[in-house]
Design goal:
single chain, about 140 residues, Arc Repressor Mutant, subunit A, three-stranded antiparallel β-sheet, binds zinc ion
């Protein structure tokens, strides 16, 4: 899938259930989301319908029920979500935000190696330009 359409936080929650189950009926997904989020079956059904429409999920008929599976890998989904986040903040704030994420999240030694490798081959630029509408954002005035 080239263009992944934005999914809401609730839709991501439903997607995570499908990713962990690989494939599941709407009843299985509803039961889990009822327990973990307290969402009514109708809510989950709506979310699943939207995820199919957006192309994140596909359905297969199995007798009289539908089996859902993801069309996007969990990593591709995570990349998209992170991309959405970083697209919504000033490009000048991306570096410091990445640092905050590294500081606050649990990371393994393998993660550290991946991060160090990525830094080693990364092409850096002298300065990053602000991409805010006014070009006079809070981040800019602090840098
Ligand atoms: Zn800016």
């Amino acid at each position: 899938m080239d263009e992944i359409i934005q999914a809401s936080p609730a839709e991501w929650e439903a997607l995570r259930v499908v990713w962990s189950l690989k494939q599941a009926s709407s009843k299985e997904i509803s039961d889990i989301l009822l327990e973990s989020q307290g969402w009514k079956n109708a809510t989950t059904k709506t979310l699943l319908g939207r995820l199919v429409k957006k192309g994140y999920l596909q359905t297969e008929k199995d007798g009289n029920r539908f089996i859902y599976s993801a069309t996007v890998s969990e990593q591709a989904g995570a990349n998209k979500r992170a991309d959405d986040l970083f697209s919504s903040i000033c490009s000048k704030a991306v570096g410091t935000t990445l640092v905050e994420i590294i500081k606050s999240k649990d990371l393994s030694f393998a993660d550290r190696d991946l991060i160090l490798q990525a830094l080693e081959v990364k092409d850096f630029v002298e300065t990053v330009s602000c991409d805010c509408v006014a070009h006079d954002c809070e981040t800019c005035s602090h840098n």
